[in-house]
Amino acid sequence: MANEEIVKNIFDHLQHNNVLLSQDEVELLLASTTKAINNCLENQEEVEIEDFGNFIRRKTTNTSFTNFKPCERLLERIQYRK
Amino acid sequence: MNNKINLSELASIVAKQTQIEQSLVEKFIETFHSEIEISLLKKNAIKVKGLGIFKIIKGGASSTDKILYLADFSIAKDSEKADIPVKTQENTLNSDEDKKLSVRTADEAVWRQSTQIETEVDPSENEQDADSDEIANLDGHRKRSLKNISIVTILVIIFAVVFYFFFVSGNAQQSPPNKMSDKALLYKETVNNDTAHYASVIETTSDINILRISSQYYGNEIFWGYIFEANKDVINDPLNIKKGTILKIPKMSAELINDANKLSLQKAKDLSAKILKQR
Q: Is the backbone of residue B142 left (phi > 0), alpha (psi -120 to 50) or beta?
């Protein structure tokens, strides 16, 4: 899914819930959020998104590996999605 | 790992950068991750530029499905080249018009950077793309492996079936005819009332050559004369004994029917010659 489509879906969803953000602001927030997550990970910080999962970046001397650990609820939802 | 950044803290950082109210940012972040979840459930995979790829990997019958995450490092790398011109507390603008202009500027800068990421050719990024492609083709590889295994299994089964028919069944067909079954086809043994003189009494079940009976009972057809002598009252043609004829097979001493003994053979030949001369 391209980010444009994600932006549109988020915008529609927020509008539906009376959250007054313009599409430009949603675009900006998306870019800023992804950048903020990356910056936190770069600083060896774990990013915990409640009810979604945790992003962790592990660094060795030569490599860097980012791991995502989904929360239990998300895993259960995936198991019973059919 | 130093510490954890939770949703509120992340929202606070983003709010500072974008000058958007923190509560709105929190709602945005929740909705953003909810959108990822919905797309994952619908399409099994989602790519978020700047964050990464999320993909559901089917665990099979014995294990559970898992989420595979492949990070997108492009934003992090790009940020080293140029920072996003976001607003800070120090340079906050007062008028609504200025705010709007500032947001647009920051926004444009972000997307300009995204465009640069797409156009710049960096070997390490290509490596990252290759990894993404590999993950995207994971299902395809699995299917191909399964297909190959199926083909090999089918070939083995076909080979086993062919082997069975050609060798096992073939050998069964090529095995020498059973003497007992041959005997059953040509004649059957009946009641022998004179076991002192006859080894057996038989009734032919089809037209038969006396040589064959000799071969059967004495081990060599050359001894047919002994059978003929014992049955000359019922045999018209030794080479074609009619069906239903009762034949007595005389008991012979082992020496007389020993085909390794020249004297026995000579004696049998003489007898045969004598019979044929008489006819």
A: alpha
